[in-house]
Design goal:
The structure is a homodimer. The first copy, chain A, is mainly alpha-helical. A two-stranded antiparallel ribbon of chain A has the order 1-2. Chain A has a single domain, classed as Arc Repressor Mutant, subunit A. Chain A is globular, with a radius of gyration of 16 Å. Chain B binds a DNA duplex through α4.
Chain lengths: ~100, ~100
DNA sequence: TTGACAGGTGACCAAATAGTCACCTATTGA
DNA sequence: TCAATAGGTGACTATTTGGTCACCTGTCAA
């Protein structure tokens, strides 16, 4: 299977944190991301490359820096695999309710 | 993190196949699921238990049988983590990434 | 122009994981 | 009743995977 690698990529907590960081602010460099994570540069780089190989992150070189961007397309594909149009309606309402309750504390 | 186990559960191809089988037809027993998968009963059982522990599958005993059902809520949670309302709109069309990259230039 | 900086590779080790087996309990129905 | 059936547990092994290090290339600015 091809999407196997996407799920494997998402299985690691460090890689999910990288996606979270890029979700907060797109276009960060390896260095910027690394200082947020308690790990050597090499570890972070390995994780970033995995995310890039599977298409969850896309990058663009700029001089000696490399900017990273989150690509949500594979995430949406996971959603569509197990949630049909009918369930989606229910579930998005459920999510909205949950967020509402959290907002109200 | 708590959702760590959900992503770990989704990382295995056999477990995703189990979810696919339940997505096709809910309420299957271990035996029914096992004949679809080239693996011993024990392996399938282990995978099913993992899926159940993380909430991706819920089950109901019926005599000596145990019926399994797919629960899409954790899948939706993954979606909501990295896709905001605006992106969701865009993503319904394919090729969103291409446009995104062109926009970022 | 040269030293500091950002990024990159291959090898290595420790930890986590998938799959199997021997052995077990509970339910069904001829 | 009792044999077949459905499901369950703990231990074991081979493989995969995460993280680090020594070492390397390309870019920028004083």
């Amino acid at each position: 299977m091809e999407d196997d690698r996407v799920f494997k990529a998402l299985a690691d907590p460090t890689r999910r944190m990288l996606l979270d960081l890029l979700f907060q602010r797109d276009g960060q460099t390896l260095k910027e991301l690394q200082v947020e994570i308690d790990m050597t540069r090499f570890g972070v780089m390995k994780h970033l490359r995995i995310l890039e190989n599977v298409g969850l992150v896309v990058s663009k070189r700029s001089g000696r820096e490399k900017l990273h961007f989150l690509n949500p397309v594979p995430i949406r594909a996971i959603h569509d695999r197990w949630i049909d149009k009918y369930s989606e309606h229910r579930l998005s309402a459920l999510g909205a309710l949950k967020r509402e309750l959290e907002r109200k504390g």
